[in-house]
Amino acid sequence: MRRIDRKELDEEVATHMPQKILIIEDEPTLARLLSYNLSQDGYEITVIDHGTEGLQAALQKMYDLIILDIMLPGMNGFEILSRIRQSGMRTPIIILTARNAEEEVVQGLKHGADDYITKPFGVAELLARVSAVLRRTSGDDTSLTQTASKENVIHAGELLIYPEKYEVVLHGEAIPLRPKEFEVLLYLVQRPGMVITRDDLMNVVWGFDYIGGQRTVDVHVSSLRKKLEMNQQSVQIDSIRGVGYKLVMNKKVSAPR
Ligand code: CA
Fold first, then answer.
1. Which residue among 54, 65, 186, 228 has the highest number of C-beta atoms inside a 10 angstrom radius?
2. Same domain, 105 and 177
3. Which domain holds residue 80?
4. How far away, in angstroms, is 247 Cα from ligand 1 center?
């Protein structure tokens, strides 16, 4: 494990850490073109050539930007857009639309895209659009996702959550969680107050091809809940009958009764 003097390096790291871009595009030539030019420009690129796998990647890792094709095997771009936005994630998304397909642009923006690029496009336009969207969205975005990717710690009530270390710390002591329990907690904590369905948790934490059933989700949430209740009262997980779960912050926990 590397040790970094945070105070001195925070600004340095924040400015020089490459921004991560996820490209969901099934056409190899276009994917290569995007990937090559964006990495030349200093971005860290991940390419996924399949719809459902792309969605899974988008929900699992924190990206600074997603470039999304519309026609994809497995799941189309509009559906991916909706699922990402439904999950509460506000990662900026640029869609790639076909020429003379205004309807795609309208649908895309309606489903939560930040911008669009019409195929075929030049490299200069691509780079300009990407940096414009990143500039526009980074300034006012105070979401937990952004905070986590820069500082690598999320504050939730009395808990300190370190996404990269899979560690939850309460008053200086680590709470022992199994990896899947940690992933469930991380996902809920990034969406406080939102009802998260069992399906969402299953897809994000266990993967779309997991066949273990929703009971697995319930078992992990119940065990996670016990561990949290034993140690603190500022964060709790409520069950929403027949639907899923919701993370609730108890702000009044330390107030005198
Ligand atoms: Ca395509």
1. 54
2. no
3. 6-138
4. 37
